[in-house]
Amino acid sequence: MAKLKLKKTKKAVQQPTANTTKDENMVVLPPVRMSDDPLPKQVKWINRQRVLVFAARGINHRHRHLMEDIKRLMPHHKTESKMERSKNLYVVNEISEMKNCNKCLLFEGRKMRDLYLWMSNVPNGPSAKFLIENIYTMGELKMTGNCLKGSRPLLSFDPQFTKDPHYSLLKELLIQTFGVPRYHPKSQPFFDHVYTFMILDNRIWFRNYQILSEDGALAEIGPRFVLNPVKIFSGSFGGTTLWENPKYVSPAKLRQAMSKKAGNKYERRIEKKAMHEATKPETGYPDIEGPDFFKGDPMEQAQDVVVKEEVNNDDDDASDEEVGIASDEAEGDTSVDEIPDTKNNPNFSMKINKTKPEKTIRRKQLKAKSKAISDQIKKRKNKQFKKKSVKK
């Protein structure tokens, strides 16, 4: 009897499972999952974008920290050891294919100062070369924002990306590189931060913000950097040049111009001194006779000065009239009645030009002296430059 009862219970358990398997789309989950059981794999990962992020030898510590920050922001990245600088950049295509990556970010340093970024679509292209400026890593900024590691970002672009063709191409390249694919095994299935790409001063400014609430409140996380585009190539790490930045100036040339400007500082200082000596007046206050001018009420002193000037002008006008009358009488052409009114018509007033020949001669002498000093400085510099070239 016991055996018969067991068989009946088995049939009763099997009947509802047969009813549930009618729909093919329905998946029956176990009521309890053990902790030792493996997690079910996500099969819906269709956009299989993998980005290879590594650097060439010659970057400093700040550039390395920036590369590590970018790796933390991209859960779909893969790493590789440093590449030798002597190798050709076409080798990067082979390295990315070995790592099964279809995007690549290569950081290249120059003179332990400048950092260049290669962003490429492997293996067919296009690729772009950027100069990274204004670098601020997460460790330096210490921002209040925070996000979950591996979460997917929202990408926000400036409207200017759609106006120019080279910016639209860069936009598509940035979307495919920085956008985390959906259902990636190492990513989280929600959005909690935003990447913003803004165009200002012919450069692309990158910022990373945390989404605090649904109304649009943001808090910056970091890092910060600016991408100055240099060239866009048709192939991956090479090919024909599709676009070249006409306003790009290499940082080495900028430093060279700054050093030249600083080298001429001594010459400019000597020339300024000579010009100051040449143009310096003999007396500081030619209209003031002594220090008594600054004593007493300033308003009364100013009124006295104005009265004296008016008196002097009247004396000058009277002397000019006398000179004109004397000349007319000597010639005999005009009478006293025909003398023009100099007070009402100031154009007829005759003023004697007071020239100072000693002052002009002194100015010329000082200008010649300053020119001689500058010539001596240039000769010394040329001699020093020749000595250095001979030693080398």
From TrEMBL:
Q: Where is this region: Disordered?
A: 1-22, 271-297, 310-392
Where are the compositionally biased (Basic and acidic residues) regions? 271-280
Which portions of the chain have biased composition (kind: Polar residues)?
342-352
Composition bias of kind Basic residues appears in 1-11, 361-370, 378-392
Primary subcellular site in the record, as a coarse category? nucleus
Bias class Acidic residues marks the residues at 312-339
Localization, UniProt: Nucleus, Nucleolus
Q: Which GO terms describe its cellular component?
A: nucleolus
The keyword Nucleus is assigned to this record? yes
SMART domains named among the record's database cross-references: Brix
Superkingdom as given in the UniProt entry: Eukaryota
Note whether Coiled coil occurs among the keywords.
no
Gene Ontology MF annotations: rRNA binding
BP GO annotations: ribosomal large subunit assembly; rRNA processing
Give every Brix domain span: 49-238
Q: What are the protein's UniProt keywords?
A: Nucleus, Ribosome biogenesis
Endpoints of the signal sequence: none
State the function annotated in the UniProt record: Required for biogenesis of the 60S ribosomal subunit.
User: What is stated as this protein's family in its record?
Assistant: Belongs to the BRX1 family.
Protein known as: Ribosome biogenesis protein BRX1 homolog
Name the source organism: Papilio xuthus (Asian swallowtail butterfly)
